[in-house]
Amino acid sequence: MHVSRAKRVVAAMLAIAVLTTTAALHSGAAADLTEPDPDEVVEGLPTTVDGLLDLDDLLPPEPEEYKDFDQLLVEVADEVPQFGGFFLEDENTVNIWLTGPASAANDDRRGQRSLRELAGRLHDQVSEGMRIRVLRAQYSWHELHQWFMELYLHLEAEGVNSFDIDDARNRLAIGVTDSEQHEAAVRTQAAELGIPAAALEVVEETASLFDHHAADLRSRHRPVVGGLQVGTTWGSTCTAGLAADRGGVRGFITASHCTTLIGGPNDGDVIGQPTIAIGNELGRERRDGQWWTTDCPTGRLRRYADTTFFDNAFNQGSTRGRIAWPPANGSIQWDGTTTRSITAVLAGEPAVNANVAKVGRTTGRSFGAVKYTCRAFNHTWPAARVPGSVTGDVRYRCISYAEYARGSGDSGAPVFR
Questions:
Q1: N or C: more exposed end of the chain, with fewer CB within 10 A?
Q2: Is residue 325 scored above 70 in pLDDT?
C-alpha cells in the first residue's frame, strides 16, 4: 500500500549528519530532554513479518509508488477541509490546526471525540490519555500544500537552503543562508507564485544538511551493529545505520553521500568497519537509489532518502536490527554488548517536538526533538559525484529534521525513538 510504504520510509530515515541552526544544541540543551526508559520498545525501522529488517523499505522508492507524509495529509484534508496540520505541544498534548472557530471543538464532548478519532488517524504517537487541543488555523492544509508545491517546482532564488510547511506555525518556512542578502528576493519570487506574504516565514540557516568528514579512530567490533564507525572507498568516515537484509541478502546501510557516487549506478565502493583496511572489509555497494528529474526545477535532480545498501560479501558477522547503546548521553564509550533493538515500525513521520535518539561514531549517544517534518533541502555536490547532473544541484524531499548533538562522521547514524 502507498501509505504503508511511505510511512516506513519516513520513519526509517537515517541521520545524515544534519546540522542544526541553533546554538542551544551545541550548548547541550538537547540533553535536558527526558531520556526514554531503557526497557521501552524502541520504534524506528521497518520489520518483516518475522521481525527481521527488510531494506526494500529503507531505500528510495519509485515515484509512482510513493506518497510522502505531506501528501498523505492531503488525503486527510480531502475528508476534513478545515484541517491545517498538527504537532505535539509536549508528550501529553496534540495540537490540531483547523480553520474556523476552535472553541466549540475544544469544549464540546462530541467535538473532542471527533478530534481524537482524527488525531489517531494522523499519528500513532497519539495515545488514549493525551489531550487533544484545537488551534485556529489561518490556512488550510490544501492551501499550504499547494503553495509548497509552487515553491518546490519553481523556487530557485539564490541562497535558499531548505523549505517546507511549518507544522507548528501553520505557515510555510524557507531557510536561507543569509537573510539580509536573500530574503527580499525570496519573498518577491514567492509573491510572483501567488503565495501571501503573511503565509511565509524566511529564516536564516547558516548550516547545510550535510557536513564534511573528519577521520577519527573508533574500535573494531564483531558482530557489526548500528552506530559503529565505518569507512568507505571514497575515504569517508561515517556511521553504520544497521545490519539488515534486502531480498534475502545480508548487508549494511549508511548514508549515500559517504560513497564515491551519490545515487545512481553502484560504483563498486567497499565498506569496512572501522576502516577499509585489509581484514576490516564488510561488503560492496549493492543498491543506491537513482535520481529523478520529474517534479523538480530544471537543472536539479531529486530523491527522497540519502541511503545506500552494502552487501556482506566478506562474510563478517552482524546482528540485524541492533544499535550500540553507550552508557550516557554524549558518550562514545561502549561495552560491546549493550544494544537497543528495533522491534516496531513508526507508522508515520515523528511529529514536531517528538523526542528521538541518535547514536553516531563521533558524538555518540544524543537526544533531541523533531523540528521539521517532510522538509525539502537543497544541496550542491561536486557534479562529478552525482550521476546525470551537470551542476551537482540536488534536492532531497520529505526529510525529517531533528536537533541533537552531531558531528563530522555521524553521517548514516540511526535515529529512532
A1: N
A2: yes
